[in-house]
Amino acid sequence: MARESDPRCPYRASLDTTKFKDGEYALTVKAYDAAGNLAASQTTKVVVDNKPVITILTPRSRQTVSGTFIAKADLSGVLPEGSSRSVKFLIDGVVRGEDSLVKHEPPLAVAIDSTKLSNGAHELVAQSGLHDKGQISSEKVAFRVDNTNPAIFLVDKALVETPWAGIRLKGTAPIEVGVANMEKIIKMELWVDGALMKSNSVYDPNPYAFSLDTTKLTNGAHLITLKAYAGQGWLTALQNTKVVVANAVEGGAK
């Protein structure tokens, strides 16, 4: 049965497989010249498979999420007449959101508040109902939730974690910052005695390092405060450390 013809060279044709039932077919290409002579290609076996399939796009397998994350799924293939045109997103067997093809084209997506889940491993499945044929499900995607707050601390020259309490500083002092759970942090700030000295974005070349010109400070005790900010500007971690500034003064005194 002829499905499409093309009088132009090179010859191309498109085939709408949704007009066929799923299964195996024999595909043949025939060519005719002006005199009506026929030449046919070898027969090629093709398989039509338009069964509906759900594929989870995000989160990725083994991805760690926090706060509110977006779960996305693609629904492809041909849905039987009367089938549900929505996809439900289930985490550990509990429905956490639903989106519909009636609203927009795939991918379908929902926002999920991970703070409603426990920290640790979870499984996400997307499902859609088929008319009189049960439902289809995506493959399970394993991911992790981590909503623990980031922690920050001062690090010495040898990269040994230390509270730095009472350390003596002079000249331009490097302030190295260590960060736990750093993927949540978008900005770091260095404060001295309640005054903002410097601010680093995570997009800076070295966002977790500061230099402090202690010659701008008086000799004696000072309070260094490090602040870390997460998404939407929330203050998420804070570290206070007492230090002593000891710059040389006129006459050689310390």
Descriptive overview:
The chain is mostly beta strands. The chain folds into two domains: 53-145, Immunoglobulins (Immunoglobulin-like), CATH 2.60.40; 151-252, Immunoglobulin-like (Sandwich). Helices cover 0% and strands 50% of the residues. The protein has no helices and 21 strands. The chain has strands at residues 23-27, 30-32, 38-40, 44-48, 53-58, 64-65, 68-76, 86-91, 94-100, 108-113, 120-129, 135-137, 141-145, 151-155, 167-169, 172-180, 187-192, 195-201, 209-213, 220-229, 235-245. A hairpin with a 5-residue loop joins strand 20 (220-229) and strand 21 (235-245). It is elongated. The model is unreliable at 157-163 (pLDDT under 50).
Radius of gyration: 32 Å
Query: Into which percent range does the helicity of residues fall?
Result: under 10%
| CATH homolog superfamily of the largest domain | Immunoglobulins
Number of domains: 2
Class based on secondary structure composition and strand pairing: mainly beta
For this structure, what is the CATH class of the largest domain?
A: Mainly Beta
Q: Provide the β-strand percentage band.
A: over 45%
How confident overall, as mean pLDDT? 80
How large is the count of helical segments? 0
Reported by name, the CATH topology of the largest domain is Immunoglobulin-like
Q: Which spans have pLDDT < 50 for at least 5 consecutive residues?
A: 157-163
Any guess at the CATH architecture of the largest domain? Sandwich
Number of strands: 21
